[in-house]
Design brief:
Elements (H helix, E strand, L loop, with lengths): L1 E8 L9 H9 L9 H24 L7 H16 L6 E8 L6 H10 L4 E6 L9 H14 L6 E6 L4 H17 L7 E8 L3 H5 L4 H17 L7 E7 L12 H10 L3 E6 L7 H18 L4 E3 L7 H17 L3 E5 L2 E3 L15
Parallel strand pairs: 1-2, 1-3, 3-4, 4-9, 5-6, 5-7, 7-8
Antiparallel strand pairs: 9-10
Length: 352
């Protein structure tokens, strides 16, 4: 029996000339800009044209394009090896991106060509949002209808407290604390996640609630290894546009830490792969901000990447999803199953 596993992420431009069309695809997504189609198209064209020069400057630090695809392919290869290392059946892993190539429709053709007995959709977003996982699910369903896909498909919508993910993040944070020149009492840990407009959260999106659960789970696990009281909080980065966004903002918290004489260890808690928002925003822009703000020491924790605990955690989620057979499962620390979001988070895709 062959199980196809589709790992998916945001995507990123390969070359400088890809930046503007990549941004257009992003802003033309109705899950990002909820205006009617003709208005959204015009807004996306305008925003992408205006933002492209700035974005090209960002990607210039990375050689002109995003490393996200190659990093995601490395994760897919590691996951495929882990899944096929023991147990029955054969697993084949594929990579799909939402806003740049390889896009969902093309990858679906590859999946169909391998004649799988079942398909599992695996996000490389640990926390669910309608703007990320929800957007890909929508595009997958549209393409499946067009192509008359008749293979059973199940999905994992999130895994904010999965043991593998939490263990991998905790290990990397522990390494950063060990390497720090300052004592733990003089350090503030910032769990930085991509922000969202407040309106999306108030409409029932559980993303911020899940980010906070992830961060708290890491700190609980860290407490098992370190006999310290840590100063920590969640913050949000990458704000764009005029809308009011969730907070506190990461840049404001870095400035506050500097004013209070605190060193900063920053943990990218919603990203599992290195890309522009970690390699440029966190490593270059926020490091410079920290220096100007007088932060004594600024340390950025790496993303989990292909850390064995993270990959083995994903493998367990895939196997448990196959066994459970639920159309959409949430991942928890001891497997997958039903809804983990409170009732107030009405945009959670898992049935109660």
């Amino acid at each position: 029996m062959i199980t196809a596993v589709v790992l998916y992420n945001l995507g990123g431009p390969d070359r400088p000339e890809d930046v503007e069309p990549f941004l257009f695809n992003l802003f033309n997504d109705p899950m990002i800009i909820g205006a009617p189609a003709p208005i959204r198209w015009l807004l996306a064209k305008t925003i992408s044209r205006r933002r492209a020069p700035i974005a090209r400057e960002i990607y210039a630090y990375l050689g002109g394009g995003s490393p996200l695809l190659s990093n995601t392919r490395a994760q897919a290869a590691a996951l495929e090896a882990a899944l096929n290392s023991d147990g029955p059946g054969e697993y084949k892993c594929f990579v799909a991106m939402r806003y740049w190539h390889p896009m969902v429709g093309a990858v679906m053709d590859e999946v169909i060509a391998c004649a799988p007995d079942r398909i599992v959709l695996m996000p490389l977003y640990p926390q669910f949002s309608t703007t990320t996982v929800g957007s890909v699910m929508r595009v997958w369903a549209r393409n499946a209808n067009r192509k008359d896909l008749d293979v059973p498909v199940t999905a994992i919508c999130c895994y904010p407290t999965d043991w593998g993910f939490i263990t991998a993040v905790t290990n990397l944070l522990g390494d950063a604390l060990t390497a720090a020149k300052h004592m733990p009492n003089d350090i503030r840990i910032l769990f930085s996640a991509h922000g969202l407009p407040k309106k999306i959260i108030s409409d029932g999106d559980p993303y911020q609630w899940q980010v906070e659960r992830t961060s708290a789970a890491v700190m609980r696990k860290l407490a098992d290894r370190w006999d310290n009281e840590f100063d920590w909080l969640c913050s949000y980065q990458s704000r764009v546009g005029p809308l009011q966004w969730i907070g506190p903002s990461t840049d404001d918290e870095i400035a506050r830490a500097g004013a209070e004489g605190k060193s900063v260890i920053i943990v990218p808690i919603a990203f599992v792969s290195e890309h522009s928002e970690t390699l440029v925003e966190l490593d270059i822009e926020y490091r410079e901000l920290a220096h100007k703000a007088g932060v004594p020491e600024y340390i950025r924790v790496p993303t989990v990447g292909t850390a064995p605990d993270f990959i083995n955690g994903l493998a367990g989620l895939v196997r448990d999803n196959v066994d459970a057979g639920c159309s959409i499962c949430s991942g928890v620390s001891d497997g997958v199953g039903g809804r983990i979001c409170a009732a107030e988070w009405s945009k959670c895709p898992v049935s109660t």
